[in-house]
Amino acid sequence: MEGVNNRSPGRKATLKLERLENQFQSHLDAPEISSSARTICEILTRASPHGIESALNSTGISPSTELVCEVLKFCYHYPSSAVKFFRWAGKAHKHSAYAWNLMVDLLGKNQLFDPMWDAVRSMKQEDMLSIPTFVSIFGSYCNLARFDEAIMSFDVMDRYGVQQDVVAVNSLLSAICNEENQTERALEFFERIRTKILPDGDSFAILLEGWEKEGNVAQAIHTFGEMVTSIGWSPQNMSAYDTFLTTLVRGERVDEAIKFLGVMKGNSCLPGLRFFSTALVILIKQNNSPHAIALWDIMVSSGSLPDLTMYNTMIGLLCNNNDIDNAFRLLDEMPLNGAFPDSLTYNMIFQCLIKKKKVHEVGKFFLEMIKNEMPPTHSNCAMAITMLFEGYDPEAAIEIWNYMIENDIKPFDVSANALLLGLCNLGRFSDIRRFADDMLDRRVSIYESTMTHLKNAFYREGRAARDKFDSIFRRWKHC
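RE: above sequence
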């Protein structure tokens, strides 16, 4: 590990080192660091390069294996000092494999690849190399988009006495796919190595996750087909199936996802609630209620029982798309599946009925809501009162208003004005006088526009009606 220094990065490396700054913690930010590790870290950050060893000796601290690993975790921002500490500690105790791996990772993440390989050769001499060492190397190279060198590192593993197995293959695939838009490159390596080392479910899952991230539906379908051909069906590969299906849904290929769900069900590999939850969120963002209800029915029939939140989300989507029949169907099935509707459930359906101007159903559903102690919101009450007057069911509108008053569903203002306007349009002036007086007693705000509408209507009816309005007006003006 000769020639290591705390150098400044070149322009090309600056962004990657900024990522390093954010990724690894300093000892100053660590609340649970031991006092010995803190003391050593203070020396490594403050002492001159030539004075580090003597400063470390003066502490009287014995560098145990645990202490070495703890200190190295906080040394990513000053690699040169970390190497000096590592050498100093190695004089007292033989380093553990974990400590060596930390040092390899620290050097690689700081782009000090020559010293990193020096450390790897030292580990080989100590018989401490393992796959985790190379996993770190893969990640360090891929973080810098040096993919050819990452693959070269895999190719030389056996020279260092580490077996090239499927775990190593998957580790390199994962490191490549973690970078933006590099799944094609990962696939090239996969195709080259698969004849030598047979892939497993994780190998395909990693590629499928890459295609999902990139939104490449065509490649996802191809990789999934290769997976089934190569390793068959198994519930152990459920995460890969989830990822594949999610890619189809995101790519608006839901019909194909439903087709594949049928095939998976036939092979006892139907995904669980995780996929369906993710897929429903996507379809809701797409406002795609027909496909959402199709997936929902597959989910419930497979035994994956949704909770209240999922039911409300689905019912909300159906109501937004005026699919009231399916909304009622889900409401009815909720108790059967252990999810009991709440006020939100009822109010979404109530609002949908109002918007669809289902006069009879609104009155009937309102009674069901209050029977089940699920009161409508004040905004739904206001909309319902307006709609019921327009639908010529004033008694139902008055019933909702009386319920609001009796149960103190505030604010009253919008509903109150809707009630007065509805009564006015029907010429029910005596009722207007009675309700207006009660509203003014309760300090409910009657809008100026409402008063203007009432005035015009009352004045058209003659002197007696005009006197009634003037009485209301005088009270209103002094409120």
